[in-house]
Amino acid sequence: MTPVAVILPGAGSSADFVTRAFGGPLREAGYGLVTPSPEPGPGLVDAALRALDEAAAAHGPALRLVGGVSLGAHLAARWAAYRPAAAGLLLVLPAWTGRPGVVAAATAAAAGTIDRLGTDGALAAAGAAVPWVA
Hints:
Layout: E1 4-8, H1 15-28, E2 32-34, H2 44-59, E3 63-69, H3 71-82, E4 88-92, H4 101-129
Helix pairs in contact: 2-3
């Protein structure tokens, strides 16, 4: 029985992105990949959680890994906390779920920099300050 990984895309991502980014490495690790397409709109969260339930029902004990990108990572962790069907989590760029204070301030400052310098200028300034950003 081939172990299965179910990886959710983020709100601004796609099943194609997840497949292209993670399909090869998961295949090399011996996993089959299931990646549901996100359902745009207000039902996104419920649809993603339902997709994990459906995958658990369809794959049973072969479901060994759940995860996601951004919002998908958050939802996979939330799902796994209440349904211990999977042995592991693959969480990529987990969504911020804490209080917005510092994060909102940093986001506002970044937006202000982009407004002042434009995208190219903001990236150049960030790269000059923190070389790995470039």
